[in-house]
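Help needed: design a sequence for this.
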């Protein structure tokens, strides 16, 4: 905790991440749950998740250029202000709906909710890319693993441990309430980031955007390990969104959980992330990235295997914990690895290209999850159809584990 005591700017960034991820955690349950109150169609529910993740595919690369050109602190706090305003808009949408669950045509309500999700996702692209490029300017390189471990831990505690069950309680009070709390969280985050003092950066020369993007791509192409990790992350996230998109329906129709129960299910999964954030830096220091990457993939694969084979909420919770532990271990290794190697002048662009590969597959995975479940239901039945994306996800992660052992060299 020495970093938090002695480094004011890092402490403010840490606090901003805590409150903004609380908002993200509330949204992680509130948005899909609101979608299920509007419709029970897996494809329409998936459409909301698709809209929220689509900006990572569309805007990651141009946002990288913006991140290198402009003040990163300003980009972060302004994005949080935009997210605050948009959540106030969602409150207005919910108040304008007739009684929920909705009995009429759900298309218009899903379309409007998807527009809000898309706008929130766009602001998230700007904020997250800028925030990850800021950290190396606030802490010494020797402290990056420790700082990233602390950041991932607080993000998981607030975003997965506290946010989802709190969202369940807030939804039980009234459906608009979690979105109002979201707005407050993003407003507090904006204030914290606005107070950060960043070291002065020399303004880069302005050139054509295509030239700047070519520089970022040329650097990544000449560092194939980072490119391979980015592509692997894209597959991990795409497969994961197949599951997370239908998990809200799986919780209701297979596990028999209400909003509060689903929130606590996600919280149990977050326990693994907290453990991963606490032990991840020490594990990596002892065993190195070459061992840690396959270990992370073993945990993630085991997670989806467990989910595919159970109808018990507690087994699903333990499985989610294994998966999030593996996910945080993966992040501690790979984020620190690229923060150390990417030059500061290229950090925004290369991170954006990395996230284009790593996060751009998520909207595709979200749509696939809903489509696979909907297409399989007439032949397999509701429960088996909801399990099918989970089974495919487990197989995909097993193949990634084999690839990592054979080809990935850190």
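Sure. Designed sequence:
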């Amino acid at each position: 905790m020495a970093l938090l005591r002695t480094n004011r700017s890092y402490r403010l960034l840490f606090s901003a991440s805590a409150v903004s991820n609380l908002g993200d955690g509330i949204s992680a349950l509130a948005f899909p749950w609101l979608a299920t109150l509007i419709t029970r169609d897996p494809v329409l529910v998936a459409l909301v998740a698709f809209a929220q993740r689509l900006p990572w595919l569309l805007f990651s690369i141009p946002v990288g250029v913006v991140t290198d050109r402009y003040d990163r602190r300003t980009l972060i706090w302004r994005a949080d202000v935009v997210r605050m305003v948009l959540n106030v808009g969602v409150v207005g949408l919910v108040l304008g709906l007739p009684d929920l669950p909705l009995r009429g045509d759900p298309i218009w309500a899903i379309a409007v909710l998807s527009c809000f999700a898309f706008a929130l996702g766009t602001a998230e692209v700007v904020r997250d890319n800028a925030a990850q490029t800021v950290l190396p300017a606030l802490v010494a390189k020797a402290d990056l693993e420790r700082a990233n471990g602390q950041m991932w831990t607080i993000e998981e505690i607030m975003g997965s441990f506290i946010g989802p069950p709190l969202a369940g309680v807030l939804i039980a009070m009234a459906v608009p309430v979690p979105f109002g709390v979201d707005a407050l969280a993003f407003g507090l985050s904006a204030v914290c980031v606005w107070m950060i003092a960043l070291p002065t950066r020399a303004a880069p020369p302005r050139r054509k955007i295509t030239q700047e993007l070519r520089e970022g791509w040329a650097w990544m192409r000449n560092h194939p390990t980072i490119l391979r990790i980015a592509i692997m992350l894209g597959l991990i996230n795409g497969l994961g969104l197949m599951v997370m998109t239908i998990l809200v329906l799986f919780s209701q129709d297979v596990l028999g959980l209400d909003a509060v129960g689903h929130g606590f299910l996600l919280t149990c999964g977050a326990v693994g992330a907290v453990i991963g954030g606490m032990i991840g830096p020490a594990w990596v220091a002892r065993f190195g990235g070459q061992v840690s990457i396959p270990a992370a993939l073993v945990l993630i694969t085991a997670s989806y295997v467990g989910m595919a084979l159970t109808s018990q909420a507690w087994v699903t919770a333990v499985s989610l914990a294994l998966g999030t532990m593996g996910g945080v271990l993966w992040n501690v290794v790979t984020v620190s690895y690229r923060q150390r190697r990417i030059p500061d002048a290229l950090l925004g662009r290369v991170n954006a290209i990395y996230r284009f590969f790593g996060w751009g597959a998520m909207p595709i995975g979200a749509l696939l999850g809903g489509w696979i479940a909907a297409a399989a239901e007439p032949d397999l039945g509701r429960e088996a159809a909801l399990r099918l994306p989970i089974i495919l996800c487990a197989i995909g992660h097993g193949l990634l584990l084999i690839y990592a052992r054979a080809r990935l060299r850190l």
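Residues 2-196+209-407 form a domain with the Growth Hormone; Chain: A; fold (CATH 1.20.1250.20).
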